[in-house]
Amino acid sequence: MAFLAKGNKITMDTYDYGIQLPFDITGADFKATDKMRFELRKSKDSENLISKDYLNELDSTSKFRFFLEFTKEESALLPPGNYVYYVKYLIKQNEEDKVQDTVASDVFKVKNGNG
What is the pLDDT of residue 1? Predict the structure, then answer.
């Protein structure tokens, strides 16, 4: 099993699930209602394969932490290959979540693992 981040690049083996990969984001004044959305796509112009929203795991206004984790079903959607991911900062506005900023995006690589 290898689910890891090096810089902004993320790598995992096929069939990896149930492993938590921490993300720490700074540089904003976070509120308790703010969220981060992780989106995974085959290419930058394709539809989301996976989209997950996260609340801050910390009681902090200066740092946002969430743990990316895939279920067995989500992992099955990812055959070996290169994907692109985005982490988007969402703020609550008029009872709806609005994208404030894209805080990270890069390559997400799925390597052939032992199924």
Answer: 58
